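Lab manual, section 2.4: Encoding a predicted structure.

Procedure: take the sequence of the chain (301 residues), apply the prediction step described in section 2.3, and record the output as structure tokens. A sample record is shown.
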Amino acid sequence: MESIIEIDNLFKSYGTIRALNGISLDVKPGEMFGLVGPDGAGKTTTIRILCGLLLADKGNVKLMGRDIVKERKSIQNHIGYLSQRFSLYGDLSVDENIEFFADIHNVKNYNARRDELLDFTRLMPFRDRLADRLSGGMRQKLALACSLIHKPQILFLDEPTTGVDPVSRRDFWKILAGLLKEGITIFMSTPYLDEAERCNRVAMMNNGEVIALDMPGKIKESMNKKVIELVCDPIRTAYDIIKNKTGYEAQMFGDRINIVLDDIEKDYKIIQELLVAAGVQITDIRPVTPSLENVFIHLIK
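Recorded output:
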């Protein structure tokens, strides 16, 4: 299958800071592709280059088989872009914002499409409300509707659910699932590794480089380590002991600690002895499937 997005050896620097350090990847039509990584990993820079909003220092980008530098205008007619700070007009209503973006994209007779999007995003009851008076989740759904008014082939989403409440976040993902059924290719960045699990494929980024690229399940399988989940009290003491007195990777999640081991039976005995000696009470231990977060931190280290 031909790739709808092709990135080849992309470099970008801001002064002395290298944002992208030779990344290469491709995306198939109809895929939901996730860029995952911490702030400063290069996710936003990548998306802005793909949308033709930023020039790379070196490398090539093709969308739908066309060069983004040479055919930027024609490509932009076929893509939608939802940035981290999407500019809605607060003094315009929901309807008027969509109308404005329809005009920008030269979309005629957009009323049916607008109603379809309002229904799709569940914003129909709020169509007369000013954008400034919408909740964070509703504003994000309106921004999505605006970016879809011209029926793009590819939708770029830059951390679309950051700062959105859990219920709106769930709604947003249902909407994205509906878009995939329509055949739209979705290329998104997210700092949330649980969201990345929903993507067909994921590229993990750190310091401007892709450190893993595959289906989420395959990335987790590649770790070749065991993970145990430990519930104990006091948890902070236990975490500090594991981190400072052993060579094992540990991550704290609320009231439990995930520990990456080579051999559960042998390695756990070492940890258990240290914790018991320090007066830590262990209430539960169980093996768990490595998460993308486990893998990501393991790869960085």
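Check your result against the sample. The mean pLDDT is 91.
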